[in-house]
């Protein structure tokens, strides 16, 4: 086991780690091999140092490194420093993109407060084969870096036709329609009643004529324009989530200030 000399006091490393186990005072937490490597070899942590941990359910806790050797490390949960917070009930539905831009899209959806993420397969989907483990890892990394306590659930891919056929109408679906006339999206969103939402971001090639017609014919769909400029799909996703959070989400009351400060420091 690693030991600390008297000349090296315990440090709070101000790093956040996602853990899968329940969090409570005194709870022992095993790290993953990647987390152990990060602690031992990147941060040069030692026994007695502390980090912040969260699991998406029990808030954020300060945890002490109780054991650290060449192969493993064990954390001990000490004290909750932030209670678990919720957020708006927003599903983020997206047509998969190629690898690097898909990573970006998933990270930004997490940072912007999506509750659930679901890949949607469309006629023009560019990358139908998905590495779900990689997507999940990107969600967790974004949550770790930006102070997010609620970790979005990653849902299984679904074809657009199947999604529309099984849709629960109580959840309003915001369709970012690249073919719509330029109009004020804030006015369109302001007309919606409070309630669960979803936003749908299409593929680089856009929706087919048949898909667009099916969306516009669905009573639970609200189509919005994202302005006069052509955006890439990953940029459109950020723009749409920002609009929704500013009009119907939790930005208006100043919620999330602490998380944004943590993100800016990372």
What does this entry look like structurally?
This protein is of the alpha/beta class. The chain folds into two domains: 71 residues, Ribosomal Protein L25, Chain P (Beta Barrel); 168 residues, Alpha/beta knot. The chain contains eight helices and twelve strands. The longest helix has 15 residues. The N terminus and C terminus are likely disordered.
Supply the key terms.
alpha/beta; 2 domains; 266 residues; single chain; 12 strands; Alpha/beta knot; Ribosomal Protein L25, Chain P; disordered C terminus; 5-stranded mixed sheet; elongated; 24% strand; 7-stranded parallel sheet
Q: Which second-level CATH architecture of the largest domain applies?
A: 3-Layer(aba) Sandwich
Percent strand equals 15-25%
Q: How many angstroms separate the termini?
A: 29 Å
Total number of helical segments?
A: 8
- Principal-axes geometry comes out as elongated
User: Which percent range fits the helix content?
Assistant: 25-40%
Main sheet?
7 strands, parallel
Query: How many β-strands, per DSSP?
Result: 12
Question: How many separate domains make up the residues?
Answer: 2
| Rg computed from alpha carbons, rounded to a whole number of angstroms | 21 Å
Query: Could you name the ranges where pLDDT drops below 50 across 5 or more consecutive residues?
Result: 1-7, 255-266
CATH first level of the largest domain: Alpha Beta
Secondary structure category: alpha/beta
pLDDT averaged residue by residue: 88
């Amino acid at each position: 086991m690693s030991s600390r000399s008297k000349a090296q006091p315990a440090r709070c490393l101000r790093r956040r780690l996602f853990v899968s186990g329940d969090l409570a005072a005194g709870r022992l937490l095993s790290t993953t091999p990647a987390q152990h490597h990060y602690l031992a070899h990147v941060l040069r942590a030692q026994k007695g140092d502390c980090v912040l941990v969260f699991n998406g359910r029990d808030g954020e806790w300060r945890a002490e490194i109780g054991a650290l050797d060449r192969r493993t490390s064990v954390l001990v949960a000490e004290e909750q420093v932030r209670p678990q917070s919720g957020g708006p009930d927003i599903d983020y539905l997206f047509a998969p993109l190629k690898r690097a831009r898909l990573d970006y899209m998933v990270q930004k959806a997490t940072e912007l407060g999506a509750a659930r993420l679901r890949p949607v397969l469309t006629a023009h989907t560019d990358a139908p084969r998905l590495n779900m483990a990689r997507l999940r890892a990107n969600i967790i990394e974004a949550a770790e870096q930006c102070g997010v306590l609620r970790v979005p659930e990653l849902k299984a891919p679904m074809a657009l036709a199947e999604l529309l056929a099984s849709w629960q109408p109580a959840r309003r679906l915001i369709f970012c329609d690249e073919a719509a006339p330029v109009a004020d999206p804030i006015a369109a969103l302001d007309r919606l009643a409070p309630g669960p939402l979803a936003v749908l971001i299409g593929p680089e090639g856009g929706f087919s004529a048949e898909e667009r017609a099916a969306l516009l014919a669905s009573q639970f769909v609200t189509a919005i324009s994202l302005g006069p400029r052509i955006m890439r799909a990953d940029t459109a996703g950020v723009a749409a989530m920002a609009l929704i959070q500013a009009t119907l989400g939790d930005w208006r009351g100043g919620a999330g200030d602490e998380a944004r400060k943590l993100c800016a420091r990372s």
